[in-house]
Amino acid sequence: MGLLLQHFLLKCLLFLILPYFLTQCVSSVQRPCLDSERSALLQLKESFILNRSASSYSKADSWKLDGWIGGDCCSWDGVECDDNTGHVIGLDLRSSFLYGSIDSNSTIFQLHHLRRLNLFDNDFNGSEIPSVIGNLSRLSQLDLSYSAFSGQIPNTLANLTELTYLSLSENDFSPSTLSWLGKLSKLTILGVASTNSYGDVLPSLKNLTRLTSLRLSRNQFSSQILFWLGNFTRLTRLDLGVNKFWGLVPESIFTLIKLEFLSLWSNLLNGTYKLKSFLNLRNLKQLQLSGNNFSLLTTTTVMNVTVPKFTILTLASCNLFEFPNFLSGQDELEFLDLSRNKIHGYIPKWIWGLSAQTLGVLHLKENFLTGFRQPAVVPPWTNLRRLDLGSNRLRGNLPILPASIYYYFVSNNFLQGEIPSMICTLSSIIVLDISNNSFSGMIPPCLGNLRT
């Protein structure tokens, strides 16, 4: 009797839970792509030439009807589908060697459910971005950078109000204004570097306070840098370089404590600032201030603060009168530019061991440097590729560098003595410029064997 009861109860339990498991099994199977969207993708592939070498791989190579994945476009490389509906929601064709034009009839605009579209690093042969892109209203991520687009940037992009990521950088657009950007209030990443854009763009960005990365560099933007940038407290990257921004650097920039990258390079900014104010941004890894009309003040108090560990630091044309003393503790620098300043006297001894394992580029040209405080040995740099000491007042013998050097400039100085034959050990040298000095003696015959 007990066994019969147990058997009955087991059947009842199976009756209750089996539909649940069947439902879960069915729901866990991804629906195949829709015929219409598969056809759109195949037509999209056919509209381009895959401009690559025989050994290069394009994601579109997997877009075909034969093979083990057959006609299920949801299994194709670079294609993402919604598990429940089968609609294509993501298209990632970055660096896929696509060559050809995109127009308003492109089947890419038939994929109305797209949320993510990445066409980075292709060649669309100078075609314009069709205005119908504004109909892809579900897009949250759009990357059209480095893809040889031209023409006007369509203001219909303002319709894509769900965008959190937008990159249009490095295309040859016609001069455009971007006042419509302010409508994209959900943006966290915005890149419009090198897009031939102009005008006073900053007011349109005032409400984009979710931004973590803002790249406006290499354009013709012209305005003051407005104080409310300090409201962008999530910023880790702020790139305003190579524009026509003018006036003072607002104090509010020094409150953006999450910044890891800050570039004000090559603008029309003026004023006088304490270098310490920038060093208080403790998370900075890259700081580019070269090529403005302002002055930086270095003080001994810089030694008493915890400063960032920089990888890139450019302070050219900043009216410096001395080597910033915090540099002696930097051991991760890859690029340092102190050129076109007013630094007088000797190059300090610590320069020659600065970031010994990482430094690749060191620019000290166009100062008033007179000599070297260094040991009479080859400096310990293992990755130095470029050193520029040109147009100073250097005296003494020609310093010899590690064999890793590619570009060595020390012209327009007062260096003396013979050109040492040891210079011929620079086996990787590409450019060697030691002209306009006061060398004497014979030119080492081995110089003719260098790869210059």
Automatic annotation (TrEMBL):
Predominant place of localization: membrane
Organism superkingdom: Eukaryota
Subcellular location: Cell membrane
Keywords annotated in UniProt: Cell membrane, Glycoprotein, Leucine-rich repeat, Membrane, Receptor, Repeat, Signal, Transmembrane, Transmembrane helix
Location of the Leucine-rich repeat-containing N-terminal plant-type domain: 35-82
Protein's membrane topology: Single-pass type I membrane protein
Cellular component GO terms held in the UniProt record: plasma membrane
Secretion signal span: 1-28
PANTHER family: DISEASE RESISTANCE LIKE PROTEIN, LEUCINE-RICH REPEAT RECEPTOR PROTEIN KINASE EMS1-LIKE-RELATED
Family: Belongs to the RLP family.
UniProt-recorded name of the protein: Leucine-rich repeat-containing N-terminal plant-type domain-containing protein
Organism of derivation: Hibiscus trionum
